[in-house]
Specification:
Chain lengths: 123, 680
């Protein structure tokens, strides 16, 4: 059996982090968690992720700046980034796309949809 | 509850607990942010943080099917978005709306937590006001969608290294040497806490019974569970100066369970990111029952120590003997232990003060008055037992200050004052007590009106001449205020006399200073803890009893000529030209028949909180000491004239007198006293 995929989740809400943790582990992924964009960037210095799932509205460093920072790091240039947020305004989606996001999922999420989205970007 | 997450119900339920904890933090952030905006701060990050708090609540509420909460927070979020994008100015009206919405949101969270109905009327008004802010901009519909064509991804097999955060199990057992050198475990534990999230537990398994206790030995050990990204060396560095004087074992926990959870599922076990860096993160979450238990045990040690002292004294051992000196050391340690435990249980008054800003807004809205609340000293700490008893009196005093103290904007303008009244709420430590002041800049006590009401209610005779402060204090008399004369708002039908009685019941005092036209200041003074008391131990009819030192003025050897008989059960004692009710305590408590000779005993001159005095006849004074208060109410219900009990050094139980109740039950004497006072 192959090594499970590592998912880095970036969200300032403890509740969301717990939900993601449980859902993703249930689906067989290894999960690491960061509490905001800056924390995520810091984690990526020492940790690798196969997929990154990030929120947009966060203190210290928001999701756009985080995606931007990840994409400028050669080690993570190719890592799929899914945006998980309650926002669904086209302008925001466009901004995320331009920053380098791979996909956009609107909360509240469905673990199956989430898993499916991860499969789609990691095939 | 509908489950939209597709997770097992028990897992979801445990995450929901986390959600409500998080809501508490977010609501506190929200209110703090809005209040900062109200003070005129305009940092964009402040607006962002307010937005995020509402946004986070909305985001999670939907997952748990908390529809009412999700709906309201969504509306609130949209209004905040208007503010954040500067389409809506941050003016007084906007802030009022947002603060009101924050109150309603708090109610929604509570309702979701209790499973009760959400706020009704207040919600509608909040919704309407929020809708005005949004100004018809349609809220986007929420939906689940997954978009963008996934781009092809070059998949590299990354090596998966350790997560940055690691969990350490640390066992720290100081040797006696550490204490002998003046070392203290507490700063070390605090230092450790700076490295990450720590959970500390105390090991007392080695603590022997008192008979085997060597006072200069060290028996306690601490177990610390530390989640940190720091290295092992960094942890060792904390103990640098203690290293040779303690046992220190560090173990790396490879598979730590998630903190803060009664983990219902292995899935909860995981490496998780560090907690958000909130200013409040420098605290420990410990089950309150454990802390209470520890406080009780510390109290027991104080009592046992006192017993030991007495036994040693009875055995004829001098204070200079080995045992005597060791006991003296134990005395210091015992006090430190008790103080440390009390410090753990201490809480800042912030939680109570925060609730008051909401209260002010509500009373403002109900009275049409405008109030600016300023708060000082909200970091002042006091024992949890006292915190719990603060809310009611403060609520009452603040209602009272706005409702009766502050004038309407028009009346203020007419008096040449700013239209907005100020209310100052402050806390400070003073002389081993916590002093809380509620000060308004209103009209002050209307003394002629107070006098006429008091006379109309028969509390004073119309001819009575009273000093200004005496007049002011009439408002604390039972029967002064009734729901018929004061607006129902201030007391919700409860008079200031009840507030005063409740404050006195926990050993507190309440005083009032008022200046006509300038305002009134109510001062609450409370003991820092309800767990210990400075008491005077005395004997009466073979019993030992305790009277709180706080009520004692002095002790007197009564002379027969000083005692005046006014009736079968009513006597007065002349004392320095004053007449005070003379209470035959043995008879009043039912220990003895009526005394006939009062000159063998001692009279304790006591003063209750309203300044009324009485002399209590007892047999003799034994000792003055700190006693640990043991409540009787749980086992015996309220006992007339008895406030609580304690255990003395010899192991015997001593009852602690409720001086107020005794004076009240001897009402005849005080009525006679009043007659005499008025006649004379």
């Amino acid at each position: 059996m192959s090594e499970p995929l590592t998912i880095l989740t970036v969200d300032d809400s403890r509740t969301m982090r717990d939900l993601l943790l449980v859902s993703l582990r249930e689906a067989g992924f290894k999960v690491v968690q960061a509490v905001d964009g800056a924390d995520g960037v810091e984690m990526l210095q020492t940790t690798s992720a196969d997929v990154i799932i990030t929120d947009i509205n966060m203190p210290r460093m928001n999701g756009f700046a985080f995606i931007d920072a990840v994409r400028t790091d050669t080690r993570h240039r190719a890592t799929p980034i899914l945006v998980l947020t309650t926002e669904d305004e086209p302008a925001l989606k466009d901004r995320a796309r331009r920053a380098g996001a791979t996909g956009w999922i609107v909360k509240p999420f469905d673990p199956e949809k989430l898993t499916e989205a991860i499969r789609r970007v990691t095939v | 509850m509908s489950n939209r997450s597709g997770l097992p119900a028990d897992v979801l339920e445990s995450i929901k607990k986390v959600f409500f904890q998080e809501c508490d933090d977010l609501l506190a952030d929200l209110e703090a942010g809005l209040l900062a905006l109200q003070r005129g701060e305009r940092d964009p990050e402040l607006v962002n943080s307010v937005f995020r708090a509402v946004h986070s609540i909305k985001g999670s509420a939907g997952v748990f099917g908390l529809d009412a909460l999700a709906r309201f927070s969504h509306l609130f979020e949209n209004a905040m978005e208007e503010v954040r994008s500067q389409r809506q100015a941050i003016d007084a009206d906007t802030l009022r709306t947002l603060l009101h919405a924050s109150d309603v949101l708090t109610d929604h969270v509570r309702a979701a937590q209790d499973g009760s109905d959400g706020p009704q009327d207040s919600e509608r008004s909040a919704e309407e006001a929020l809708a005005l802010l949004i100004g018809g901009r349609e809220a986007p519909a929420e939906d689940l969608d997954f978009e963008f064509t996934p781009r092809p991804v070059a998949f590299e097999p990354f090596s998966i290294s350790d997560p940055v955060e690691r969990t350490w199990e640390i066992r720290f057992r100081p040797h006696a040497r550490l204490y002998a050198k003046g070392g203290d475990p507490l700063p070390l534990l605090r230092e450790l806490k700076r490295l990450g999230t720590s959970t500390v537990s105390l090991e007392m398994a080695d603590l022997p019974g008192l008979d085997a206790l060597e006072p200069e030995q060290a028996y306690l050990a601490w177990r610390i569970r530390l989640v940190t990204s720091q290295t092992e060396a960094a942890i060792h560095e904390v103990f640098e100066f203690a290293a040779s004087d303690c046992e220190l074992v560090l173990t790396l926990d490879e598979n730590p369970p998630a903190p803060d959870q009664e983990s219902p599922d292995d899935a909860m076990e995981a490496a998780r990111g560090p907690e958000p860096r909130r200013p409040t993160a420098e605290s420990l979450r410990v089950d309150l029952n454990r802390v209470d238990k520890l406080a009780d045990l510390a109290g027991e040690i104080v009592i046992t120590h006192a017993m030991l002292l007495q036994r040693v004294a009875e055995a004829g051992l001098s204070a200079e003997s080995g045992i005597g000196m060791a006991l003296e050391d134990l005395n210091t340690l015992t006090r430190d232990l008790r103080d440390s435990v009390m410090a753990i249980r201490a809480q800042s008054v912030k939680s109570v003060f925060q609730r008051m800003s909401r209260l002010v807004r509500e009373v403002e809205a109900a009275t049409g008055k405008q109030v600016e609340l300023t708060v000082f000293g909200e970091g002042t700490e006091v024992d949890r037992t006292v915190i719990d008893r603060l809310t009611d009196p403060l609520t009452h005093l603040i209602r009272n200050a706005i409702d009766h103290g502050l004038e309407t904007p028009a009346a203020r303008a007419a008096a040449g004052k700013p239209a907005i009244g100020t209310l100052r709420l402050s806390a400070a430590h003073r002389a081993g007590r916590i002093v809380i002041e509620v000060a308004d800049d209103g009209a002050g006590i209307d003394r002629p009106r107070v006098k006429s009401i008091a006379a109309a209610r028969g509390l004073i005779s119309a001819e009575t001449q009273l000093q200004d402060d005496e007049l002011d204090n009439l408002i604390f008399l039972p029967g002064f205020s009734t729901a018929a004369t004061v607006s129902d708002l201030s007391g919700r039908g409860v008079g200031l006399d009840v507030v005063k009685r409740n404050v006195q019941a926990i050993g507190g005092r309440i005083t009032l200073v008022s200046q006509p036209g300038k305002g009134s200041t109510f001062t609450l003074s409370l003991p820092l803890t309800l767990a210990v008391l400075d008491g005077m131990v005395f004997s009466l009819a073979g019993q030992r009893l305790v009277v709180p030192v706080g009520v004692l003025l002095e002790s007197i050897q009564p002379r027969a000529t000083d005692i005046h008989v006014l009736g079968p059960d009513v006597r007065l004692l002349s004392y320095r030209g004053e007449q005070v009710p003379f209470i035959d305590l043995g008879w009043a408590l039912g220990y003895t028949g009526k005394s006939t000779d009062f000159t063998n005993g001692v009279a304790l001159l006591v003063e209750n909180e309203s300044g009324r005095r009485a002399a209590l006849l007892i047999d003799s004074i034994l000792d003055q000491r700190q006693v640990v208060i043991k409540s009787l109410e749980a086992n015996y219900g309220p006992t007339p004239s008895i406030a609580a009990a304690t255990i003395l050094g010899d192991g015997r139980v001593a009852l602690i007198l409720d001086v107020d109740a005794i004076m009240a039950s001897q009402g005849q004497a005080s009525e006679a006293f009043q007659q005499l006072a008025q006649a004379g």
